[in-house]
Fold:
Amino acid sequence: MSIDVETARRVAKLARIKVEDADLPALAQDFNRILGFVEQLNEVDVDGVEPMTSVTPMRLKRRQDGVTAGGMQDKILSNAPDAREGFFAVPKVVE
Structure:
C-alpha cells in the first residue's frame, strides 16, 4: 500500500492536524515508511509465541476481591469541587 499526498491530507484532516501543503509530501513519505515497517513486522513468524505483558516474567500483585463496608458517599463527595444529588458534577465537554 502506498500513501499519496491526497491520502496524507485526508489523514491529517481526520486527525484534526493542521499540515501545510508544502509539508504534505514529507508526511506521505513518513506514512509510507511506517507502513513499510509494519509490513516487515507482518513477515515475522509468531506461531507458538505466548503474548506478553512485560519483557520480564512477573506476576501482578492482586488484592483479595472482597466486600467492603462502603457507605462513605458523603465523605468521598466532600473532596469534590462540585457535587450534585449524590454524584460528582463535571463540566459538559460534548455538545
Summary: The chain has a mean pLDDT of 90.
